[in-house]
Prior knowledge:
This protein is of the alpha/beta class. It folds into four domains: 2-115, Arginyl tRNA synthetase N-terminal domain (Gyrase A, domain 2), CATH 3.30.1360; 152-189 and 285-398, Rossmann fold, CATH 3.40.50.620; 194-279, no CATH class; 419-595, Isoleucyl-tRNA Synthetase, Domain 1 (Orthogonal Bundle), CATH 1.10.730. It is built from 24 helices and 14 strands. The strands form four sheets. The protein has a five-stranded parallel sheet, with helices on both faces. Helix 15 (364-376) links the parallel strand 11 (354-360) and strand 12. Bound molecules: arginine. Arginine binds at residues 147, 150-152, 187, 189, 339, 342, 357, 359.
Amino acid sequence: TATKTQFISTMSVGEDNVSSVKRQLTQLFEISLRETVPGESDVVPLVDSCSEKSGVKHGDYQCNNAMVLWAKIKGKQTGFRGPPAVGQAIMKNLPPSEIIESCSVAGPGFVNVVLSKNWIAQSLHRMLIDGIDTWAPRLPLKRAVVDFSSPNIAKEMHVGHLRSTIIGDTLARMLEFSHVEVLRRNHVGDWGTQFGMLIEFLFEKFPNPEEVNESAIGDLQAFYKASKVRFDSDSEFKQRAQQAVVRLQGGEIRYRKAWKQICEISRTEFHRVYERLGVQLEEKGESFYNPFIPSVLEELGNKGLIEESEGARVIFVDGVKIPLIVVKSDGGYNYASTDLTALWYRLNEEKAEWIIYVTDVGQQQHFDMVFKAAKRAGWLLADDSLYPKATHVGFGLVLGEDGKRFRTRNTEVVRLVDLLDEAKSRSKTAVLERDAAKDWPEEEVDKTSEAVGYGAVKYADLKNNRLSNYTFNFDQMLNDKGNTAVYLLYAHARICSIIRKSGKDIEQVKKTGKIVLDHDGERALGLHLVQFSEVVEQACTNLLPSTLCEYLYDLSDIFTKKFYSNCQVIGSPEETSRLLLCEATAIVMRKCFYLLGIEPVYKI
Ligand code: ARG
């Protein structure tokens, strides 16, 4: 399977991610497996953490190789009598390690590992001294492209684009944290036949091009609609619009200029949203790839991929009946020709090894066909677990209360700026209701309201499995109880206030103090903390931000229910150690917030 091979390729990179408990145990089991069945070479260790939620727990981690191995060696003269015996042997052959406190074999040969709490404590302490970045995973690639947000000029930037923006930004942040250089690409829809109509309409409205600016045009979406009405109702206008497309593509100065003006106005609007959300992107829109299309299609033609079909030029790919059209019957290029070219550019010019596309699931087939065509061309490998590779990160719809596509009030589409305004003003009301905020300066109230409001919108999106639809509900996402950003941000602020209230200089405590994990609550918290690295690695590998959200929520839960409610911090004999656990929790929470694009809150 993909994860299996990925694991091997990750390990062969040489720079092992030593901060990952799972990876370290995997290496130990690899040695043991080789020892246990010397003849079998390609046995991949199946090691995973044991979830609290799965009921009976015999250890912190488990190795599940015994059954698989048994199936392989059954007929041979190995002396084993069954999977449990194989499990026993795997356990016995484990090299000694400071990570492991004890091992046992359970059921049909599961090898359970209990981690050494001294080792957990030491890892935590080392992280406190050296910084959380030392816990960053190492992925087996150098450079990735994340293609996200990618709205269309003059058309609406709708909640679908908001999802793409939020999910794409998180994926980029997680990969960047994991030592991958990420090219954040905004594949803006800035080319296409709609521009003929827009340009002609612009000429009509503003005979003097000097007068064109954002405030004169006002709402670009309304402008688009009005021009569409004109286009549909007047055949003479329609003809001129069609001419305009040709003239624009031919590079006529006046038309290029008008096109640029329209793009610029859209861009300003997009940027307002990005700025609010703290998202960085580099625009390389569809038009950027235009000059490269002919030579890329020529290459594909030379490789024998392109066929003629009903006047169009197309590529057939495995498992899909309809072909991918790369040149329309009128000779024009389309979305697919641009995407094939962009993929070529990203692989060959930008030397990216992983190209990730974040769009709604509706575009899945498009990307499936583009990737398959690229495989036929030999640009990508057939095996998706190897780099270079391309992945479509699909997501579901945003629904309103009525279960239909999300809309606000009477507007047909939701303006993202309005949505963010509302998130902020609602969270401001809630912030002002809190005692702590009574004597805050306006600026602080504002900053907190933004952190909470935008954080809530982002988290409500990211916590779901991205493939499922989710219902947009302000009341729910701004609730301070339950699995929300508000709850998590407040939990973090409370931990910070425990540290403040102790009156201790935490930097000093880090240097002189020692972490002890004698209480079950302390140990459970410590264990969860040292698993941060492998969770980020998993979230990157599967491109699932929800994995990180789950981890963060569990962390807050374990801190409160297992640790804080049972282990007095201030004034207890264990105060020093427990303050360090508070600090480690706050640091890991903040890194999770950072990776999710959420601003932390320190006081509340
Ligand atoms: N502009 C497209 C849309 O709004 C999304 C582009 C996604 N990226 C890509 N390389 N096709 O649907």
